[in-house]
Amino acid sequence: MTGVVLVLTVFLACAVEAVEALTIVLAAGTSRNWRSALQGTAAALVTLAVTVAALGPAIGLIPLRALRLAVGALLLVFGLQWLRKAILRASGHKALHDEAGAYARQVAAAGAAAGGGRGVVSDWYAFTLSFKGVLLEGLEVVFIVVTFGTSQGSVPLAVLGAVAAVVAVTGVGLAVRAPLARVPENTMKFAVGIMLTAFGTFWSAEGAGAAWPGADAALLVLIPALALLGLGAVALLRRTRPPGGPAAGTGAPAPVGKGSTP
Q1: pLDDT (tens digit, 9 = 90+) per residue, 184-224?
Q2: pLDDT at position 99
Q3: Does the structure show a pLDDT above 70 at 178?
Q4: Are 57 and 174 in contact, with CB atoms under 8 Å apart?
Q5: How far is C-alpha 191 from the chain's CA centre?
Q6: In the beta sheet, which residues pair with residue 128?
Q7: Which residue spans traverse the membrane (predicted)?
Q8: Residue 237: what are its φ and ψ, rounded to 5°?
Q9: Which of 15, 26, 193, 249 has its CA 20 to 30 A from that of 100?
Q10: Cβ–Cβ < 8 Å for 204, 76
Q11: Neighbouring C-beta atoms of residue 149, cutoff 10 Å
Q12: Residue 115: pLDDT band by 50, 70, 90 thresholds?
């Protein structure tokens, strides 16, 4: 069962990063030059592959207990940040993330940028925009895969979740050639925040020498408990939401899982 939880967590986390990277590539390709945008994407993927090949084996030299303590602490920090923002968005205290708005801003900026190419790249702006976007989001995907896979001792399962997420998001995005504005990204971030917080708590406690009742099965209790705590916080904060609340793009805030803007 924990293998399923691991794959699902990695899938959701990597899907969020893939949506954001795809939005940037689509903006560069649609408003500037598709060939240069794809060249930048390919260059970023090669850079990521080289980085993983160079640094990946070094992680295996770290003792598992120390690795789980360090990784658990990092995941706990990231997870609480994601969960905090998701709770604020769901309760109306923070504007929902608007992928369509982000796409429009990227397109506007790309359209206003100066042209010009370098070497085999005909549009340097489209190349660098795609390269930076894919590289930054890709590094986060690599971090998720390496930390989850190594700490849980199931790198292939973590890779499976990441590949499935990237393939699914890329396939849908390229088919419609538009930002995935209908993907419930805010709901996904809420779920990922819970998962990261749960795994971070679990691994940091294990790394510190604690023993969980039921071993890995404790995650099946920890995850629902954190979910209930998060939903309770949303319900409590909704009572103190200011009149009108922050806008999500051009519309009003919606609860997690509702509306078309992530």
Answers
A1: 667 878 888 898 898 889 888 888 888 888 877 888 888 89
A2: 59
A3: no
A4: no
A5: 11
A6: none
A7: 37-59, 66-83, 133-151, 157-176, 188-205, 217-237
A8: -70, -30
A9: 193
A10: yes
A11: 21
A12: low
Name which of 14, 9, 12, 5 is nearest 140 in CA terms.
14
Identify the DSSP state of 96.
P
Q: In degrees, to the nearest 5, what angle opens at C-alpha 226 toward C-alphas 233 and 169?
A: 95
SS3 215: helix
Of the chain, the end-to-end C-alpha distance in Å amounts to 29
Which of 17 and 101 is assigned the larger pLDDT? 17
Residue position matching structure tokens 């995907």 = 141
Question: Mind listing the pLDDT tens digit for each residue in 155-169?
Answer: 788 889 999 998 988
Residue 146 in contact with residue 13, Cβ under 8 Å?
no
Residue 118: strand, helix, or coil? strand
Residues 6+ apart with CB under 8 A from 257: 184, 186, 187
Query: Residue 170 and residue 164: Cα distance in Å, rounded?
Result: 10
Give the 3-state secondary structure of residue 217. helix
pLDDT beyond 60 at 87:
yes
46, pLDDT greater than 60: yes
Report the C-alpha gap between 58 and 75 in whole angstroms: 20
Q: What is the mean pLDDT of the chain?
A: 78
Tell the burial category of 111 from Cβ atoms under 10 Å away from its Cβ (0-12, 13-18, 19+): exposed
Q: Which residue do the tokens 């909704």 mark?
A: 238
| 100 vs 151: CA distance, rounded Å | 36
Helix residue ranges, H only, the chain: 2-31, 34-59, 64-90, 99-112, 124-152, 155-176, 185-207, 219-238
% of the chain at pLDDT higher than 90: 8
Q: SS3 of 60, please?
A: coil
Q: Is the pTM of this model over 0.85?
A: no
Give yes or no for a contact between 162 and 21, defined as CB atoms under 8 angstroms apart: no
